[in-house]
Amino acid sequence: MSISIINVSNRLPITVGETIHKSSGGLVAALEAIDRSAYDIHWLGWPGGVIPEAEQPALTQKLQDEFGCTPIYLSEEETAAHYDGFSNSSLWSLLHYMPSRFRYDAPWWDAYQTVNHRFADAIAERAKPDSLVWVHDYHLMLLPRLLKERRPDLRVGFFLHTPFPSYEVFRCHPNREDLLLGMLGSDLVGFHTFGYLRHFRSAVMRVLGVDGDISEIRHSTGRTQMGVFPIGINAAAFRAELETPEFAQQLQQFRETFGQKRIVLSVERLDYTKGLPQRLDAIEHYLSRTDEATRDAIKFIFVSVPSRENVAEYQSLRDEVEHRVGRLNGQFTTLVNSPIHFIHGSVKFSELCALYAMAEVALVTPMVDGMNLVAKEYVACQRQNPGVLVLSEFAGAAQELFNAIIVNPYNIEQVTAALEQALTMSPAERAERMNAMLGRVLDMDAGRWARHFIDALAHRPPIEVLRHQADEPLQMLIDTAQAGKRVALFLDYDGSLREIEPSPELATPHESLLKLLESLDRRHGIRTVIISGRKAADLEAFVGRFTHFTLVAEHGSRLRRPGGGEWEDRAAALDFSWKPEVAKILKMHAAFTPGSFVEEKRTSLVWHYRQADPEFGEWKARQLLSDLSNALANEPLRVRQGKKIVEITPLQIDKGGAVAQLLSEQSADAALVAGDDATDEHMFAITRPELISIKIGPGDSRARYRLATPARLREMLRTFLRNTD
Questions:
Q1: 626-665 burial by CB neighbour count: b if 16+ within 10 A, else e?
Q2: What is the predicted pLDDT for the residue at 725?
Q3: Which of these CATH numbers, 3.90.79.10, 3.40.50.1000, 3.40.50.2300, 3.40.190.10, describes 467-570+653-722?
Q4: What letter would DSSP give residue 40?
Q5: DSSP letters along 159-216, please?
Q6: DSSP state of 37
Q7: Pairing between strand 597-600 and 605-608?
Q8: Are the beta carbons of 353 and 247 closer than 8 angstroms?
Q9: What residues form DSSP beta bridges with 8?
Q10: Bridge partners, 648 (sequence order)
Q11: Burial 692-719 (b: 16+ CB within 10 A, else e)
Q12: CA 180 → CA 183, 205, 493, 503, 709, distances in Å?
């Protein structure tokens, strides 16, 4: 039985004109290279151009019947704002580390959202319950989340074909939060290299404040797995072309045209990320330091494929490149040779393969590139007397094709030296380098890339697992209350009832939480205890108005009974002479960790690092834990690491002790304890048959059940109240 896949990209793999024909491209080649009997692939995207409304029904039917595609129609204004504007004048520049070229217009963002919503609606309507949805590239970064909101049953993968830049660059974008949240709607996010994955994870940590490990990010709506999937080419198609008469004829024609010239080839889209001006700088440097005989023997062929010609920056780049080529040819042309042969346009497949096979050197030196398939295509076309690949270290392909001559494209002297090295390299070294790369290119082809991603997505456990684990405890509470028996609720505040905020003082009860607490406060048959690590004054300020609640502060050291009376001190007999020395250690770490601070409570000391850089803060927290374990080895103190805190408290004080005391004073037939971090594990460790323990959020826990977010806990409590009113 074949796997149903909806493949989603900005452009369909077809060109609509007087006739309709398939387009070329890396993604098209990748999906053509896989076994179509195992995968039922339907493609969804924009057909290109503006299609009159009267023609759309007939075209839709034709594309579905003959090409397995569903078109998404866009107006001319939407195309300009979504594609030329937001995607390529705003996102593209930042994704490629070029903030100086960044442009932004608020209507572009509106159009980007509109188009992503339109794609989501179309997929949600078409997708079968067991479909895999594979979304491609930066034009549709919002789509995974929008689709999950409409169809949470679908398994959604997202692959980014560009680099993902460092956090410092990506955070410049005005819509950074929405873009990251959109990608996190995926079950699986794929990148070409580990560096891009690492930068994405860093941006999620620093922009959204969401932690994750090296392969998975746990967030408010579930889990997103991350993976490295370097794309390949349809290597079989290139190797097969080398055996065709068309290739042989084209190769012979080129040899007759260029004679005995030594060919240095450059094939790129005309894009400012490809480093064409810098490449011309290196060529000029090379030509300026060679003699006339050497210059006469070499020919630089530039194939510049048109790209985004409606965007002003690309028009300007074309003018610059053509001017530079003209100047260099004017400067270095002799009676028998002009050094640069410049082609602005596409070439046929047989012509491209012949150029690759004939070229003694391929200069592939983008300033930054997600992968760069030109490098792999050149390698695939090498047979007898192979050439030399000069490759930018900032192309994703450099991590795989490390037998190339790897260069820094910003270092013109180094690129020039690499060109000289390539042209003087021995045939034996050329063959040794090329054969190592050829094996990799043929083995890790486009079909294998596609199968690898699809298999990873197909076997990804669905994120819905976390969402429904509280059905059983909810029913237990409802049954107990409906039977007229006693129910007690022990509810942690920060991270459980209320979402964590960057600063503790910001976590005041919002309107939704206040309404819930008011409903609980009116239900005298339900005993509600708010239990927190916060100071008593904080709890008074946040929930002190609810006089029927029991409040427990500082992990159980202080307690306020229903009625709003005085706070009881459960730690009155304890010795706190340890605090001044421990405070010195904490303050030293705070001084050298920007964004951290020390809070002193009556019974504990807390080092907060939520505002610190996430990775630096975790590193400093580990250092602090080590320092404290040595300094306090013989003290009756507990050192615990919670969510962005390190807290020191007496061993005699914990939430579990407070819960046990309150249950011994007034038993319950069902008692819910809910918490989110390590300080709540003492509650979960209580072994009583009536106790129902729920962990809020990810992470290992002794709790019996789990809810993904505070919002889920609040909804559970509302459902409980509705069913027991």
A1: eebeebbeebebbbbbbebbbbbbbebbbbbbbbbebbee
A2: 81
A3: 3.40.50.1000
A4: E
A5: E--S----HHHHTTSTTHHHHHHHHHTSSEEEESSHHHHHHHHHHIIIII---B-SSE
A6: T
A7: antiparallel
A8: yes
A9: 44, 135
A10: 605, 639
A11: bbbbbbbeebebebbbbbbebbbbbbeb
A12: 5, 10, 27, 22, 19
Q: According to the model, what pLDDT value does residue 121 have?
A: 97
Q: What is the pLDDT of residue 464?
A: 39
Q: Which residues are catalytic?
A: 492
Task: Give CA–CA dist 574/638, Å, rounded.
Answer: 14
Mean per-residue pLDDT pooled into runs of 10, the chain (725 residues): 88 84 74 74 91 92 92 95 94 95 96 98 93 96 96 95 96 97 96 94 90 81 89 93 96 92 93 93 95 92 82 82 92 88 91 96 96 96 95 95 96 97 96 94 92 89 47 91 94 93 85 94 92 92 93 93 89 90 93 91 91 88 89 87 89 91 93 92 91 87 89 93 90
Q: How many residues does the chain have?
A: 725
Q: Is 291 exposed, middle or buried (0-12, 13-18, 19+ CB in 10 A)?
A: exposed
What CATH number is given for 3-228 in this structure? 3.40.50.2000
CA-based nearest residue to 410, from 275, 294, 536, 290: 275
Burial 348-373 (b: 16+ CB within 10 A, else e): ebbbbbbbbbbbbbbbbbbbbbbbbb
pLDDT at 15: 80
Sheet with 3-11, side-by-side order of all strands: 69-71, 39-46, 3-11, 132-136, 155-159, 188-191, 222-228, 216-219
Beta strands 487-492 and 526-531 are parallel
CA 502 to chain centre: 22
CB within 8 A of 3, min separation 6: which ones?
38, 39, 40, 132, 454, 458
SS3 of 46-70: the string is ECCCCCCHHHHHHHHHHHHHHHCEE
Element (H, E) at 133: strand 132-136
The domain 579-650 having CATH identifier 3.90.1300.10: the answer here is no
User: 176-184 and 194-203 helices cross at what angle (nearest 10)?
Assistant: 120
The region, left, alpha or beta by phi > 0 then psi within -120 to 50, assigned to residue 95 is alpha
Topology (CATH) of 235-444: Rossmann fold (3.40.50)
- Looking at residue 463, what is its pLDDT? 42
